[in-house]
Amino acid sequence: MTAAGPAIVSLRNVSKAYESGTLALSDFHLDVRAGEFVSLLGPSGCGKSTALRIVAGLSRASAGTVDAPDGGTGFVFQEPTLMPWASVADNVRLPLKLTHADEARSRAAVTQALERVGLAEFAQSYPRELSGGMKMRASIARALVTEPQLLLMDEPFAALDEINRFKLNNDLLRVWQELQRTVIFVTHSVFESVYLSQRIVVMTPRPGRVFAEIAIDAPYPRDERFRTSAEYAASCRKVAETLAQAMGEAP
Fold it and tell me: Any idea which architecture 7-72+148-247 has in CATH?
């Protein structure tokens, strides 16, 4: 079931045009409520990442209204973007260091964040010593260390092999349920969006707009039984068909 209550993120009639003339978003609408797990699904270049960056305040809309939390937001990029000269712990500590947080509290928060993503024993390792999946775990820990109410994730698992992707999907759902945070997750994978989400926002090709919203009513926790169930297969088929229809909306 999707979360009830007022939206903590609301985009209305949002458009985004770049200086090059490219129109990334047009008349885009999005409402996300506290505690929801919502995925933005669409083809590459449809404006999913642009919408996420607008929510984060990393990019300004060219038109429309944007209501989003002022602070209290964590962002996980497509690439881990870790500092190669710093340990895992120091990479995770960076957001706290930038805000001059208390040292003792910072150490405790870093330890807790690393434990949540299963990297506690690698705190003093360096990025070059980590696998791709472990680097992404470190990136997620860095986003969680400030205990944000809103977690924005821009195709974080796209470059991983299927085994690591499945593991991180499971770990992400566990952390989401434990912390009861709000997640907006960008993906171009139908299968991933169905497995993770309470609600999927299907977008048209550029300029991106909302073509349809699909609720995934399967209960949590979700595991391999759900991934191999008839319910999961039916939901994937429905979402895939809707995405194909959205692709037909290309100008």
Answer: 3-Layer(aba) Sandwich (3.40)
